[in-house]
Amino acid sequence: MAYTTDQGDEKTAQQRLRERRAAAHRAAERVVSRAGFRGTLRERLAHLHAHAPDVHDLDEPGDMYGNGVVGALEERVAGLLGTEAAAFFPTGTMAQQIALRCWAGRTGNPTVALHALSHPERWERDAFSAVSGLRTVRVTGEPRLPTAAEVRGFEEPFGALMLELPLRDAGYVLPSWEELTETVEAARERDAVVHFDGARLWETTRRFGRPLHEIADLADSVYVSFYKSLDGLGGAALAGPRSLVEEAKTWRHRYGGMIFQQFPTALSALIGLERELPRLPEYVDHARVVAAALREGLAATDVPWARVYPEPPHTHEFQVWLPYEADVLAEASLLQAEEAGTMLFAGAWERGGPGLAVTEVGVRSEGLTWTADDVKAAVADFTRRIPRAARIADGVEGIDGVDGVDGVEGIDE
Q: What's the mean pLDDT when you consider all of the chain?
């Protein structure tokens, strides 16, 4: 399909919005979460410089093709998850493709059963089938994890069941521990292996009431990310039986993941394991406080309908749904940040249907200072800005309060 001017204009507008949101977030005095990736290069380097000496000997030689600090990170992950071994990967997309490719070779079945909202189905451009020769089937599309009954009753064979914990696009949802163990048992009854897409597995211990190694022990293999919850520069790990991990390292080389030096990413992952991992339960607990205050605060406004989901949150991240167009809520969020110095909703607002939008809220260290009353006050301030945001989005008013000209708002001036 030809690339039209309208498509180009829309892409430019989206880029301007992202840049404006990033600038507003950096300048805001109060935020609920300030993830490291939003920082400047100087800030990221300063963080690495300040904390790397606490997690590894910086006087040892640099890593080459996976030894040194990368090997130390792999050992740390295997120890935390209670597996025989772990392998570092530059991306989770690569790690999971390789893991499931290796399992397909062992089971003789390249079919992977997963959720319709799982990351490979929604965000990886059919990588499983296009690159790795795998075939996916969707056990369910409901906004929850697959149940044991659905796994047992699925109408065709599969070699592996992949479970995303938590299921991000459904609202960072998790099953109960009992539900999870029953689903895993159901897969085993069908002679299928179980792989956990545990990009955010680190934050599941509060919901499950179990340590990481006990959670990971349910699966045959586990993938974890170093930047989603741990604030690292990037990278991932695949953990499981030593024979699987060694085979995965061979495929890692074939896929182009055998990178010469990776010490900045590895060091940042070790820093995350040292500094962020112990705090995640605290973030989860306070996310419940923030979520309850958001619900109560929204109920006290003129907003006709609102939903905080799930409630209480299963992790330190959750969704907020409001009955307005996404561009209106995005504008209201930016106005609050730019004019009041408070950014209650730092994430993008996405269209959830006609006149309906959803955003994600995550609580990190900055959010721990917010009381329930702070949240309610910020909600009231945010909703008061929605009518003006709607006028700006419609081109009726400029961002500085001046009428728009020919339907063009004043943001670009």
A: 93
Query: Are the C-beta atoms of residues 133 and 110 closer than 8 Å to each other?
Result: yes
Token pair 């699987």 is found at 244
Task: Find the angle CA(379)-CA(381)-CA(384) to the nearest 5 degrees.
Answer: 105
**Could you tell me the two tokens for 199?**
């990009």
| Gyration radius of the chain over CA positions | 23
Q: Which two tokens stand for residue 7?
A: 């498509």
| Residue 128 CB contacts under 8 Å (≥ 6 apart), including other chains | 97, 100, 112, 120, 134, 135, 136
Q: What span, in angstroms and rounded, lies between the C-alpha atoms of 234 and 90?
A: 7
* Strand-strand pairing, 356-362 and 317-322: antiparallel
Residue matched to tokens 């301007």: 16
pLDDT at 396: 73
What is the secondary structure of 186-204 as a DSSP string? HHHHTT-EEEEEETTGGGG
Residues 6 or more apart whose CB falls under 8 angstroms from that of 59 comprise: none
Q: Copy the structure tokens of residue 280.
A: 């995640």
**Helices and strands (DSSP H and E) totals, the chain:** 16, 13
Q: Rounded distance, CA 378 to CA 380, Å? A: 5
Residue 109 CA to residue 246 CA, distance in Å, equals 21
Q: Give the length of the chain.
A: 413
pLDDT per residue as tens digits for the range 39-67: 899 999 999 999 999 999 999 999 999 99
Per the CB < 8 A criterion, the answer to whether 232 and 264 are in contact is: no
C-alpha 203/C-alpha 313 separation (Å) is 11
Asked whether residue 404 carries a pLDDT value surpassing 80, the answer given is: no
pLDDT tens for 259-304 read 999 999 999 999 999 999 999 999 999 999 999 999 999 999 999 9
Residue 17 token pair: 């919005």
Is residue 405 very low, low, confident or very high in pLDDT (cuts 50, 70, 90)? very low
196 and 223 in contact (C-beta within 8 Å)?
yes
Cα 37 to Cα 31, 203, 228, 303, 403, distances in angstroms: 15, 19, 10, 32, 36
Q: Per-residue pLDDT tens for 27-36?
A: 999 999 988 8
Side-chain-side CA neighbours of residue 341 (13 Å): 2
